[in-house]
Write a structure and sequence with these properties.
Arc Repressor Mutant, subunit A, two-stranded antiparallel sheet
């Protein structure tokens, strides 16, 4: 493998997925303090505050201040996909800059790689859109149970 950066989601997207999975494990109407999510999920509070703000702007969470305030999912977890969460904080998923706009690369008309990138990106986006926060919450609970059952 050559040197360079790997294709990966950002730290903010990872934090968003962790926070949303945590919220998806709770009853829908339950509000949780951002500080609680930060502590339980090991997410630095300043980062989490920014992530929660983006998730709220995208309509994925509801925030309220004051006594009894906190963060909760805006919709049932089975209606929120992994794609929506990632794109709320990172924007559209792009495997290569040339996929941003069709006119961003003058090689596009004859570049075979462009078509491959577009096809793979399409599949990735489609797969991410099939995984819901409910799916992740259930998987998380199963993994936790397996750890407890194994005595770890």
């Amino acid at each position: 493998m050559g040197k360079g950066s790997a294709v990966e989601i950002t730290r903010q997207a990872d934090y968003a997925v962790r926070a949303m999975t945590y919220l998806a494990e709770l009853p829908l109407e339950k509000r949780v303090a951002t500080a609680t999510i930060s502590r339980v999920e090991g997410i630095p509070l300043p980062f989490l505050t920014k992530v929660i703000s983006r998730l709220a702007t995208a309509g994925l969470v509801v925030t309220s201040r004051g006594m009894g305030g906190g963060v909760s999912l805006a919709r049932p977890p089975e209606e929120i996909t992994l794609l929506q969460v990632i794109e709320a904080v990172d924007g559209p998923i792009l495997l290569n800059h040339c996929l941003l706009r069709s006119d961003s690369c003058d090689r596009e008309p004859y570049c075979a790689a462009h078509d491959v990138w577009a096809e793979i990106q399409g599949r990735l986006v489609q797969e991410l859109d099939t995984v819901t926060m409910d799916d992740l919450a259930r998987r998380q609970a199963e993994k936790r149970k397996m750890l407890v059952d194994s005595g770890q």
